[in-house]
Design goal:
The complex is a heterodimer. Chain A contains 14 helices and 2 strands, in the order ααββαααααααααααα. Chain A is an all-alpha fold. In chain A, strands 1-2 form a two-stranded antiparallel ribbon. Chain B starts with a helix and ends with a helix. At the A-B interface, helix 1 and helix 13 of A face helix 1, helix 4, helix 5, helix 18 and helix 19 of B.
């Protein structure tokens, strides 16, 4: 009997060992992606952080200057003006894209979720722009928005609205909003799909009960739909915030790295690019550019962390 | 049992991959050894071994001409192959910086002039070119464009650019216009073209650098050319000087002759306006001649190399060195790359360059075959003045030139006055010199 128990114990010890081994082996499988992640995500961040504490001679690190690059960025002309101007544009970008990516795409999702004909067709149409590379989008819209030969102004002329024709990308008042609209056109389908998935997850019985209680459509949306899809709204809001502060490609494709005309489309991404790589003639400042990256990283990381805390709190409350 | 089998399989695979790796290394080592032996056995064969030099450039549009240059060089040095790798001009700095920093770069690189070359040289990425035959024959002013802060030359200057006004002779004839020689005549001609419904100047402003380039062309008569440049260099004048203010006022004055919404146009739009004869004149560097020759060979093209303040007065042509070629310090083929530098500094190359690209070369004693290039060369020989903002205001981050042209954009958008443009540029120049 004792022998049988010993035997059983031995079997369970062997099983445990084998389970532990399996556990460790599983960890080995994440090594390749961890390596890639460290190389392309962690290393650049640490490298930028280190660079932000140094002055540079051309591309070569010179002397350790502590927080001087940050001090220069926040307090010294013309860096502070350009920095705050770019940061302001990032905020505008977020506020406007919040409206388009959250409000408009939520309404589109509601519309598609309702019993309209050709649901799949509209879903595809709204999502299609997302399939295009941002550089292709930039090139296409640089042609469409050209003030002399562009399709948009020609169309406005054709339909008798010539007075509305504008140099869309050549005016300080319209350039940034034009770019944001192009960006929204490109990415609205993605947020719409997230909302659509969330809407499909809402139990139909709740609506039926509300209808019996006499709730109208607007009340149903405000009291049932929005609270039920709130996690999706939160996710899209955070993604919109991150993409608004990381924005670079479309502005670069349409206006170049100068954030023109006259810094009216300059954002932290383009400012960082100019500081790191300079203009054609030179004038790069890698230390300062790295300081911009660190500030950008801190903004995005702190908002992401805050949102994670909020999410967890909400989950806990449930 | 299954788990044990999986573990055994993973171990087996890992050992196999490791052994395969070792085997590959061994094979490579064996190959290298046999190659070396072969070279050693054959003595002088080592010098006959083919060497490939990789050359970075931002002149993708000159690929055909470079093939001719390289063919010529390879016929002189049959054991060297040169691989020309051009990139888009606007992306070039980024690509070059990344290549140099990562140490995976080319053997020969094209360098931006003045501060652009200095910043690469100061970062210790280049080989000083002292002693390269032919270099001492090149004009000292041109060599300044390829020097580091230590005063050593790091590049062979290639082309000399002149800021000029191109014009369509047929449009001028059609409207009975004389070619302007002075600033006053230039305005008169522009007024007449405006009245005739022709856009006087095909101008863009989306990329701000073209605005400072136009300033470089029209400003010298306003600030009295080299006299003002010398005062700037001596420190007895600055950008707030009344003569420089006048030059920026003239830029503002030109606005009425530019196309509508020109700040939203890019240079290619402006070129298209000129090609399609919607505009009569186009201001840019002499390098555009080659573009016109390829795109509009039938246009009856004329050139105004410079304007004088008064009839018969001095008309200095704005010039600057376009770029140079240098040798990367960590190249494995420094000797061969230096031979290429020697070729670039030779008169043979200078003539080839002028003939193939219809451009002014930096090598002395070259006779350009194209009549317009010849006309510009003759005017440059008579009197030239440096492109002030590029040559002497390339310091700082951002450079004063960048601040100036970005603020010129602001001026055309009604955000700034000419005085404010100058104040900002001078502030940046002061900061850069600190």
């Amino acid at each position: 009997m004792q022998q049988t128990e010993k035997g059983l114990e031995q079997v369970s010890v062997t099983q445990k060992k084998s389970r532990n081994m399996k556990k460790y082996l599983i960890h080995l499988f994440i090594l390749p992606s961890l390596l890639l992640y460290s190389m392309f995500q962690v290393y650049p961040i640490i490298s930028a952080l280190m660079n932000s504490f140094y002055s540079f001679q051309g591309f070569a690190r010179d002397t350790f200057i502590g927080l001087d690059n940050f001090k220069m960025l926040f307090t010294q002309s013309p860096f502070k003006e350009t920095f705050y101007n770019a940061l302001h544009h990032n905020w505008i970008y977020f506020v406007v894209t919040f409206f388009s990516k959250i409000v408009v795409s939520f309404l589109l999702a509601l519309l598609i979720h309702s019993k309209i004909k050709g649901k799949e067709f509209f879903k595809t149409v709204f999502f299609l722009p997302r399939m295009l590379s941002i550089i292709v989008v930039g090139y296409l819209f640089s042609l469409i928005l050209n003030p002399t030969s562009g399709a948009l102004n020609s169309f406005l002329d054709l339909v008798g609205l010539g007075s509305l024709a504008q140099p869309w990308l050549g005016s300080t008042t319209t350039a940034l909003y034009t770019i944001i609209l192009v960006d929204s056109w490109n990415s609205i389908g993605f947020s719409m799909l997230i909302f659509l998935a969330a809407l499909q997850g809402v139990d139909k019985e709740i609506y039926e009960a509300a209808k019996i209680d006499g709730a109208k459509i607007v009340t149903q949306i405000l009291k049932i739909t929005i609270p039920m899809v709130m996690p999706a709204i939160m996710i899209v809001t955070i993604l919109t915030f991150i993409s608004s502060f990381e924005t670079f490609e479309l502005i670069y494709a349409l206006q170049g790295s100068t954030g023109g005309p006259f810094y009216s489309t300059d954002v932290l991404g383009t400012y960082f690019y100019r500081l790191i790589f300079g203009s054609i003639e030179g004038g790069q400042s890698i230390g300062l550019g790295s300081a911009v990256v660190v500030v950008l990283f801190l903004i995005i990381a702190s908002v992401s962390a805050l949102s994670l805390i909020l999410f967890r709190k909400k989950d806990f409350e449930r | 049992m299954k788990k044990h089998f999986s573990l055994l399989l993973i171990c087996f695979l890992s050992v196999s991959i490791f052994l395969m790796g070792c085997a590959t290394v061994n094979v490579n080592n064996q190959e290298n050894t046999s190659n070396n032996n072969q070279t050693n056995d054959q003595g002088n064969v080592e010098s006959e071994e083919q060497v490939e030099l990789v050359m970075y450039s931002w002149r993708a549009e000159d690929r055909e001409a470079y093939e001719v240059f390289i063919e010529k060089f390879e016929s002189i040095h049959p054991n060297i192959r040169v691989k020309f790798e051009p990139f888009q001009s606007t992306e070039y700095n980024t690509i070059l910086n990344n290549a140099l920093v990562s140490g995976t770069g080319p053997d020969i690189v094209q360098l931006r002039p003045y501060q652009g070359a200095a910043s690469v040289a100061d970062s210790d990425y280049l080989v000083p070119l002292e002693g390269v035959p032919g270099l001492d024959e090149i004009n000292e002013d041109f060599l300044d464009a390829a020097k580091g802060s230590d005063g050593k030359v790091y590049g062979v200057p290639l082309a000399l650019n002149a800021g000029v006004i191109f014009f369509n002779k047929d449009i001028f004839e059609e409207h009975h216009l004389e070619v302007p020689e002075t600033w006053g005549e230039f305005l008169e001609v522009s007024d007449k073209l405006n009245a005739a419904g022709v856009v006087p100047i095909a101008q863009s402003g989306r990329a701000a650098y073209v605005l400072s380039l136009v300033h470089g062309v029209i400003a010298p008569p306003a600030y009295n050319g080299n006299e003002f440049v010398e005062e700037i260099l001596a420190g007895s004048a600055d950008l707030k000087d009344a003569r420089f203010v006048e030059s920026v006022n003239r830029m503002k004055q030109l606005e009425q002759y530019f196309p509508k919404d020109f700040i939203a146009l890019d240079d290619q739009d402006a070129q298209r306006m000129f090609y399609s004869e919607q505009a009569a004149m186009y201001i840019n560097g002499s390098y555009r001649l080659e573009t016109f020759e390829s795109n509009i060979p039938d246009m009856n093209l004329g050139v105004i190399p410079s304007l004088a303040e008064e009839k018969g007065g001095n008309a200095p042509v704005t010039t600057w060195v376009d770029g140079s070629y240098g040798v990367v310090k960590n190249t494995k083929h420094q000797e061969e790359a230096l031979l290429f530098m020697e070729f670039l500094a030779s008169q043979e190359f200078g003539q080839l360059f002028a003939d193939e690209l219809n451009r002014l070369g930096a090598i002395n004693g070259v006779n350009p075959s194209h009549p317009i290039v010849n006309e510009i060369a003759a005017a440059v020989e008579k009197e030239s003045t440096p492109y002030l903002l590029l040559v002497h205001f390339g310091d700082g981050s951002p450079t004063t030139k960048t601040v100036f042209e970005d603020h010129l954009q602001g001026m055309y958008l009604g955000e700034l006055s000419p005085q404010e443009v100058i104040e900002e540029a001078q502030k940046n120049a002061d900061r850069a010199s600190e």
